Queue: 2 jobs
Job 1
Amino acid sequence: MKDPKELKPDTLSLHAGQRPDPATGARATPIYQTSSFVFDNSEIAAGIFNVERTGHVYSRITNPTNSVLEERISALEGGIGAIATSSGQAAMHLAISTILDSGSHIIASNCLYGGSHNLLEYTFPRFGIETTFIDFRDIDLVKKSFKENTRLVFGETLGNPGLDVMDIETISNISHENGVPLLVDSTFTTPHLMRPFDLGADLIFHSATKFLSGHGVVIGGLLVDSGNFNWEKSGKFPQLTEPYSGFHNMIFTQEFGPAAFISRARKEGARDFGACMSPHTAFLVLQGIETLGLRMDRHVATTLQIVEYLNNHDLVDKVIYPTLATHPDHKLASKLLPKGCGAVFTFELKGRREAGKAFIENLSIFSHLANVGDAKSLVIQPASTTHHRMDAASLEKAGISEGTIRLSVGLEDPEDLINDLDLGFRAAKKIL
Amino acid sequence: MKNIYSFSGPEGLKDTKHPIVFIHGTGMDHTVWTLPIRYFLRKDRNVLGIDLPGHGRSKGKLLETIPDMAKWLLGYLDHLKVNEFSVVGHSMGSLIALETASLAEKRAVNLVMVGTAFPMAVSDVLLDYAKNNKPEAIDILTYMGYSNQARLGRNTNPGMWMTGSTKKLLEKSNEGVIYQDLKACAEYDSGLKSAAKVSATTLLILGKKDFLTPPFKANDLINSFKDPLVKEIHDSGHTLMVESPNTVLDYLIEIL
């Protein structure tokens, strides 16, 4: 008997979760743009509601187009199941709200996307969930930060804005020793560059708005369950191990085993919070994922060229990208991200805010906006936009400077992009 | 028996009147039967979703042969004071169900064998991987456990990746479990004799695209039963309860 060959990621990107539509023969995934689904009869309806039959009821909870996407990302990440959500923020919220209650505590990396930071720092405390933000490079501090009520550890594969590479293996081991799962935001790396479950993460979410869809046309999120975490052994998650009165006293670990988390997330979170993805969005994300491998390789290759160009430019103080030997996580990145460190990074432009403004306003191919992971190249200066109220000292505390510029490198010709950046530098030079 | 786990719904077993006993396959546990169990619970039937000794939540020593497993199951039913019962098994569980129905011919009302064959041959390569607790054993069981089409997904259970879920359940089994189970299947040699003794109403549910127990390998078994019902699901592989859960349930409802 030959060893079976698992399908490779590029094949899964095109096929996982989908077969030609049995009703029409359509090769592409149809967009099931419907709010609800007709039952064959009352008995079948009762069966689907009671989770004794499979099928769709209402698109807030499941939808056939979304299901294809959910299977596809599960396959690519090596998970058991997923839920498509209205945004990456909704996916993060769904993960946390499924297993944390008022009185719970989170340990989070201190280098998070601003939206994630806001949710943890300002919003969840209103609901009794507190977060301690720490430097994940300080392993002793990570170990010391666990409290009796800690229920989750959370970080990003590549942190914001310094592209801190999370040592997922080490952090997950510590989390598991404390009976707590590790949730990872894998948006910047996608399963093409890193599969966090292989390193020990338990739950992953993506902003599918970014590289997964890849064309800047949708807002969407995905929450994926590895099925690895032992909720019963932990003993800290009654949401999954004790009767849930919201679903006929179902005990999720008892009835769904490894799928306990994702089952509760759907039966409670998708049902009650309702932050579902539109089927049309799911279709567009699927279209993006079909070319994920090709695009990510190109994104990374072009990024490397631009990083080299910037690293040698007179008007650049510093480029922050983990493939550079100067990056604090260079060695870890070589181990965890052999295919590359993504296509979003920052550099420090000499001069203050005005130089940055001149630089950005003279770019024509790079688009000045607040997003990343588009096929088109993007640029933003935090000090003059997202962080414009902060003075230099406050910016420094946030890990950025007045001259920090963030690029999201797209799929254009690398030479054209470098020429475009050159125009920006010429304009900035006049200010200096 | 105190270390044995069986699932009978949130309220537990109501009484001992004619339960339906569900038995899992190699390296699995009762959760493979969650959907049909939920149906029969809704219909106020007694059910027992068994975790065999050393599997799932059940502690205890692994049983080495299919007849030993059947004797153990009857002992468990005796312990619960169950007289009449119906028994449903998948793969290895189907052989246990067969042997149980044969040993307790007057007590077994219905026998359902899902994804079955006799003999249930296991390749030396697979046994060797399993014996050495190599992950390749799980890879082979997962790969061969599904039809070619199902390996691409399109689960009728929304959002769940079929092969990923099966692999995870197998990975959660303790060391040595998969080997012991496969060995028990391979060494079981009294299937035809046992089938001839069965007086329970018998149903075989087979997947036409099953690589592990292809339907033609159930022919001798089918011919050994007195008057079996046979249902083939044309687009399903070996893991029928995942690939075709609603059809499997419909067939179970017909007989149970």
Job 2
Amino acid sequence: MSTEVTTGLTTVVAPRAPGRRRLAGLRRLDPRVRRGALSWVALLVFWQLGATSGRWLAEPLPWVGRLPAPSDVLAAALVLVADPGYWHSWLASGGRVLGGFAAAVLCGVPFSALLASSARFRGIVFPVFELLRPVPPLAWVPAAILFWPTQELSIAFVIFLGAVYPIVLNGLGGARSIDPRLLETARSLGASRWSIFRRLLLPAVLPALAVGMEIGIGITWEVVVAAEMISGGGAAGSAASGGGLGFLIWSSYVGGSYPQIIVGMISIGIAGYASSALLRRIGARLTPWRRESVG
Amino acid sequence: MTATAAPARGAIRIRDVVKAYPGRDGPVLAVDHCSFDVGAGEICAVVGPSGCGKTTLLAALAGFHGIDSGSIHVDGQLLCGPGRSRAEVGPDRVVVFQNGALFPWKTNLENVAFAPIVQGRMSRRDALDRAASLLAEAGLRDDIHAYPGETSSGARRRVEIARALMTDPTILLLDEPFRALDALTKSVMHEALLETHARRPATLFFITHDLGEAVFLGHRVVVLTARTQALLTDARYRALVQQVAALVHEEARRAFEVGDREH
């Protein structure tokens, strides 16, 4: 039997006895990975058994009994992966998210800087901002379709709305929580207004902005899916020509190909997770002084 | 103290300064007709209970607040007073704050190099070089590339003093800089401050709650009270201070040596 020393996150395994290779290989995995894998396997087994419960029980189990089985989903996924239309959907949704999110960053960051630095501007603009903020982005969809000349722009606008609020609010919060002594110190050390903005305000707000962006990109994926469902997938309007992942889910539902719905859902899960993780990584890279508190 | 040329600059003359803050029941008097002098290059320790106006005076010297009446002169030049209610904020009078105000997103080295870079007085490279040598002088060679968040509190305070010294200030305004430190670190910091002061003489306006610290560090101790100010500057007091300072110094040294042995 191999002896195991667990220190924090890493597991150190002493030289293993012969014939125990596979177990030792499993053991060598990070315990977090091991636990995560365990819950995935449990979920899949439960799902597979539950989804096929109609075959071995008199009545299918409620809820899970109506789901397509993971084996069917896997089969559908293999078909979809070979279909260029599926990848076009990725590109379409990804492009919309990227466009709307980029617009939200480009508008949101200077806007929050203005709000933070001018009490007059804040006084004029903030009441309207606060009134519009609780309106969910999806409530804007019909209006957006009316406002904008193309479907693409309407969807991008709704995505923009989803991302811009967390960015602005976090930026503003970050700017307002700057220690006033840092400002006084910078002035006392001879910094000009511009230096204070560039060397003090920007880095001081960066951590809060990074959090705002991470929240914002998560919301964009929520929004893009619903916007595509409602608007009918933009100009293209068909799964084959890339209506987007949201449209893929909806058209799969309408067309009765249920395993495909699950493939679409999983795709969005992956996309949202990957983009959040990417932004978190970028945020951590941009704010190296927070290593201690983040790690 | 080493035989560095005595600085002719940094003499502070405070006369009849009054400053009130708006309060709920009318204005609250923070400084009431306060007058005293600090000699050029002196270490002036200012003690007194909370709310006696120590920090208000410091902020007036730094230019963070104005004063209502009276005047403050530095080297004969009007800093604030009649015709100028508020001093200009400038790098000749740098503040070191109570809990430290290092920029957390800059390394210790970048913090120290900040002032000459933003003033456009030195190239980035020169500023970083000078900052590195100043930090090395302060015994902080190992902390140069660390962020303040990764640095011990005593070392952070030294970094901050080094940062202030980079501007070659005539007056260094210290607002209870060693308050949060443990006793041993504090006595090490006292030594370090005296050493630094001997090397780079500037007038130190040093606010503290700690009477021992005031007596140990101060060439002059100003006791501020909410109403009147007692000035302990006469010869008898100074002789007494010398004695006490020698005793405190001895005590601190002994504590430090014991600490060293225990290491």
